[in-house]
Each structure stands twice: as structure tokens, then as C-alpha cells.
Amino acid sequence: MTRIARFALHPGFTVADVDPRLFGSFVEHLGRCVYTGIFEPGHPTADEAGLRGDVLDLIRELGVTAVRYPGGNFVSGYKWEDSIGPVADRPRRLDLAWRSTETNRFGLSEYIAFVKKLGPEAEPMMAVNLGTRGVLEALELQEYANHPSGTALSDLRAAHGDKAPFGIRMWCLGNEMDGPWQTGHKTAGEYGRLAAETARAMRQIDPAVELVVCGSSGQSMETFGAWEATVLAETYDLVDHISLHAYYEELDGDRDSFLASAVDMESFIENVVATCDHVGARLKSKKRINLSFDEWNVWYLSRTEAEVSALDWPQTPRLLEDNYTVTDAVVFGSLLIALLRHADRVTVACLAQLVNVIAPILTEPGGPAWRQTTFFPFAQASRHGRGQVLNVRVDSPTYETKRYGEVPLLHATAVRADDGTVTVFAVNRSQTDALPLEVTLVGLDLTAVVEHSALADANPEARNTLADPERVAPHGATGTVLENGALSATLEPLSWNMIRLA
Ligand code: AHR
């Protein structure tokens, strides 16, 4: 018996509008993300500011919106003053997080100029150091960055060549402060108080700033849940978002569970939403805290942990340079689907990271830049996943996994654009079998399949490398039909799919 996956779409059953910031990314001073990633003076494609033109083009094609900076773990040792003013005067510093030497050659002004070059949708998302620093330093950074003029720090910015304020609206109050690996790690109570005082003071400068308070650095943290509740009890009225971070990898050859990683991501989101709303209810507040999933990706963390401890303070080491397979891209696509399915509460998300470091783009110093397998689902979702997410309840055959029990083979979402066109994003988790899909379209004026693009390969380990940078790319799938209000398609085994209907 052929097993068919089904769902129905109706314009009246919606999740929410997609916030463009769901397609954010992350640039950390880590390995080669900045140096020889986005920034390489002397590279044949570099512009006057030293930004690599080939990389800028790929980032624009990727469709990245918010760009979180400068870390990550790096931010907990960050002295923002080191990264401003004449380059020759900037100090070299130890970066404790990544056992590297930071030259500060690329700093705050360079970051803002970089974000501006990405296009009108791109916006900065700046983290302040609440690991080894506090309220005053955050305020001084905010004043330097955003105050128009007439104070010591805003005039200093102008003297450094940036007359116009940077206008940073989104700020992260530290990074992963629940993690024992974080420099200046704190208990939830200690961090909650510091975050609250920092938020209160930052709002005194500008009540309109958008603030992200640190949630847990993973659902498996021992303090998960209690951390969010304690931190939000201190900060509920003062912040807009709480952060979530999650990375997934295939462990012990258990690919079936790896393919179901989004089950964990969705439960993480739902558990954080429940905790936020529980605190809101206790406080009798009408306000809703949204979620900033500001680090997510596939990351072979277990393979790379040893890399860092072996370092002896090098400059720009090759770190966390995972080379993604087709399988990784399918899981990655499924994580994107999970974010879209929760667009009612996840209003910011940052793919960690952007270039070289667990990234959709790889580069060689002095050489080319190319797209990883994960580049394609992100670019397609950012381009076509704009509008209103429709409620998708799948009726799908299932398979058994060690980590998550019985899991649907189909993972899917659909987004309706303002012009009425609909894009379905779908993943078939089966490693062996194609999955027939039937979608009933109710009350939607759709008559044609514009495109069915699939990412799948006879070799699930296929990847794009320096030697073969275009080995993997999406292809057109055949046999997809829309007739009498019903879409039928076949999803190849282990595939990411985008089906556009008009
Ligand atoms: O993205 C890599 C690292 O992962 C970040 O620096 C940190 O926040 C997280 O643990």
C-alpha cells in the first residue's frame, strides 16, 4: 500500500505574518567568519573597505536580514572601545572564548558599514558584554553608537568618521549567560538582576530599543525552564524577546533521529512560549514576550570541541568549518520549517553563522567563495517565505526514531504572499522511500504550479567543496500537478522541497 502524506490549506487558518527578521544571521569574531570571511583587504574582489565583493554578493543572494554581532561567546570578553577609531591604534587582545588573538582590525564602524551594504532589509543586532562588564559599558556603547551628537562619546564617533548615528535598534543583553563555559557565567538570579538594570538604563537613553534577554543555551541545559522563569521574573516589563539557541548533529550514526531534529526545536520553542506566558500570567501582564532564536544550525560540535583547547592564541584560525552534506541541508531545511511554523512567537532568528564558521558560505583566503548545501534552503525560504504562514496540520506516515519516538515522515509549512501566491516548504525524512504528497487547497485561488525545486541526491553525503563547489544544487522536480483545487507531488527520499503555486 502506498503511504500518502496529506494536508489542507485554507486562507482563514493562519499562524502569523512572517517577521523578515526570521531570516537573520550571525557574525562572530571566531575563526575565519570575519577575517578572510567577510573582510579581506587585498582580496581581488575586496572593496575600498576591505569587504569581499564575492562574499557580499552571496550574502545578498542568501537573503539575510538582521545580523547579530560580535558574538557569541566572544562578546563576554569584548571591550567595544578596542574596536573603534584609527585602526593602527587598536589593541591586540586575547580572545578567551576561542583561544585566539583578536586584532580589532575589523570593528564597530566596519560592521555597520558591512550591514548597510547588504541591502535595505539588513539591520544590525548588537550584543553587549554582560559577562565581564556591566551597565555602564553597555550605556557607553549605546551612546557612542546611537546618540546623534553633543556628548563626548557621540562626538568621538563623529571624529572617527561616522557623523550619522548607527541607529542600532536591536540589542542582546549578553550571550548564553547560563553556560558554565561563558566568561563571567552567572546564576539566573544574578543575570536576571544585571539584565534588568542594564535594560532599564538603556531604555532611559532610548525607550524604543528592542531588547533580547538571554534564555537557555539549549533545551538540555540542567537549568532550562527555571532559568527562563527566574530571568523573566526580573525583566518581563523591560525586554521584548528572550533568546533560544540550538545546534543539531548526527550522533552515533543515528541518522533517523538526526533527521527528526526539528521535533526537538519545536518542543523547545513551545516550552519557552509556555514559560514566558506562565511568567506573564503570574505578573498579571498583558504583554507578550517573543522569541529570538538567535543561534540555530547543524553543528558537528562533538567533532570540533577539541580544536579550541589545542589552540595557542593564533590569529584567524580555521575553526568550526563544517562542510555540510545533502543530509545536513535536509535537516537544516526542516529547522527552517520549524521556525516558520512558529512565526507567531518566533519573531527573530539568526542562522549561526554566516561565513566559514558553521556557515552557508565558505571562502578561501585570496581564493573563491562558494555555497554550501545549506545555502539553498535558506535562500529559498528567505526569498519565498514572506507573507502569512498558513496553518499546516500534516497527516503523514511515520517512522520510528531512538530519540524522539514515532515521527511523521513529512515536515511542512506554507506561506501565502500578499499577492495570493502560496509556497509550500516540505521535507521528506525517509532515507529510502519517495513520499507522495497531496495538498487540498480550500478558498485559495491557485491554478498553477510555478516551480517545484528539490534538494536531494543519490549520495546523501554529497557536498560542495573547493575542488567541486557546484556539486550540489537544487533541481526541478517532475510530476507535480495542481488540478481541481488539489496539489499532488512526489517528494524524493531525504529531500528538501519548495513548491510555488500561483
Ligand atoms: O556559534 C558558535 C558559538 O555557539 C557561540 O559563540 C556561542 O554563543 C554558542 O555556544
Task: Provide key terms for this protein.
25 strands; alpha/beta; 8-stranded parallel β-barrel; binds alpha-L-arabinofuranose; single chain; TIM Barrel; Immunoglobulin-like; 7-stranded antiparallel beta sheet; 26% helix; globular; 502 residues; 2 domains
Molecular structure report:
This protein is an alpha/beta fold and 502 residues long. It folds into 2 domains: 5-10 and 391-501, Immunoglobulin-like, CATH 2.60.40.1180; 19-384, TIM Barrel, CATH 3.20.20.80. It has 11 helices and 25 strands. A hairpin with a 5-residue loop joins β13 (361-363) and β14 (369-371). α5 packs parallel to α6 (226-235). The longest helix is centred in the middle third of the chain and has 22 residues, at 261-282. The radius of gyration is 23 Å and the shape is globular. Bound molecules: alpha-L-arabinofuranose. The site of alpha-L-arabinofuranose (AHR) has 10 residues, from loops.
CATH superfamily grouping of the largest domain: Glycosidases
The second-level CATH architecture of the largest domain is Alpha-Beta Barrel
Distance between the termini: 32 Å
Provide mean pLDDT, rounded.
97
- How many domains? The number is 2
| Gross morphology | globular
Low-confidence region ranges: none
Helix-strand makeup class = alpha/beta
The largest pleated sheet is described as: 8 strands, parallel, barrel
Q: What is the fold named in CATH at topology level of the largest domain? A: TIM Barrel
State the strand order across the main sheet. Answer: 3-4-7-8-9-10-11-12
Ligands in the structure?
A: alpha-L-arabinofuranose
Number of helical runs?
A: 11
Task: Provide the CATH top-level class of the largest domain.
Answer: Alpha Beta
